[in-house]
Amino acid sequence: MNFNLTDEQKMLRGLVKEFVDGEVRPLAQKIDEDEEIPKVLIKKIAEMGFLGVAFPEEYGGGGFGEFGYCLLQEEMTRACNSTATFIGAHQSIGTNAIYLGGSESIKRKYLPQLTSGEKIAAFALTEAGAGSDTFNLTTKAELKGDKWILNGNKVWITNAGIANVFSVFARTEKGISGFVVDADTPGITVGPKEKKLGIRGSVTNTITFEDVEIPKENLLGQDGKGFLIAMQTLDAGRIGLGAGCLGASKELFELSTVYAKQRKQFGSSISKFQAVQFMLAEIAAKIYPMESIVYRTANNYDLKKDIANEAAIVKLFCSEAMAEIADKALQIHGGMGFSRELPLERYYRDARILKIFEGTNEIQKMIIGRYAIKDNGKWKVDE
After folding, report:
1. Which CATH number fits domain 121-225: 3.40.950.10, 3.40.50.300, 2.40.110.10, 2.60.40.420?
2. Among positive and negative, which fits the CA dihedral 95, 98, 104, 106?
3. What is the pLDDT of residues 28-48, one digit of tens each?
4. How far apart are alpha carbons 105 and 142 in whole angstroms?
5. For position 383, what pLDDT does the model report?
6. Which residues are part of the catalytic machinery?
7. What would the CATH number be for the domain defined by 227-374?
8. Is the entire prediction scored with pTM above 0.90?
């Protein structure tokens, strides 16, 4: 497999890096402290085309696929995990559910507005009693004439407070189905912003649906087949999450190495101490396979291969590695790493959610284990 970037991919990465360094990095600490991404920054991100980079050009996207989206998220998380989380919730799951399941007319109606950033999307799947047990969701949709009537509650929905469009999953007579719901539809109530340990700049809210009327044609895919759409959407989300882990890990590696060379103890740079070198070595040894599995899986996703197992592996390995790397990076920085004067503590806090959202790591182990049993332990990646 050739991992050399095309000229277009190199251009994209360079463009994102320049934007991140000039527009995002200077605001990262303030975004965390204010618990909000400035609207002007969101507008600039949209104007750069970053909110639709993965989607085909015919829908207003950049045409870079999942691979290009991962390049975007890798660079974005080097500066601000909150901003990357906003982009991921909008593009990789909120909009992607419509792209994967919507009829052609629905895609033509919604995707150009979402890829341009004119409208923001959110992915409404999780409920109080249906987190890891997604199939247990109780939000209901009943078909009455030419409309679906939606009732229920969703929790921990990223972007809910700023979204114009929701990809909502609810139970119908035939099973779980997906719907495109305009956020300004009567009967929708968005709760207050949640106070979180990390990724504080991203907006997370509850959503209540009370007799919300949805046009019949806003059904995603077939009635009763929405669970498959939701899972396919999360596959892409897990790859993007891995790319985010990769970018933040590279940033922490660089920060830690520079600091170790500058910091002096016992009359010498701490970079000369074997204990510190070992921690840097362990970080590097995690980053290398992270990069490999993220882009290998993104490439297979773009080739339309079944990557459900691989996406679970990416999510599990990268989130676990990121947590370990954040811990070692903070340790290398010592007391300064614990101070809010440096971004280490922010990366440390932001890393914790990575083992939870897009499916907990325990769920990923279940997925991987079931594939192992199903395939009798034969390695079938890339087949």
Report:
1. 2.40.110.10
2. negative
3. 999 999 999 999 999 999 999
4. 22
5. 61
6. 358
7. 1.20.140.10
8. yes
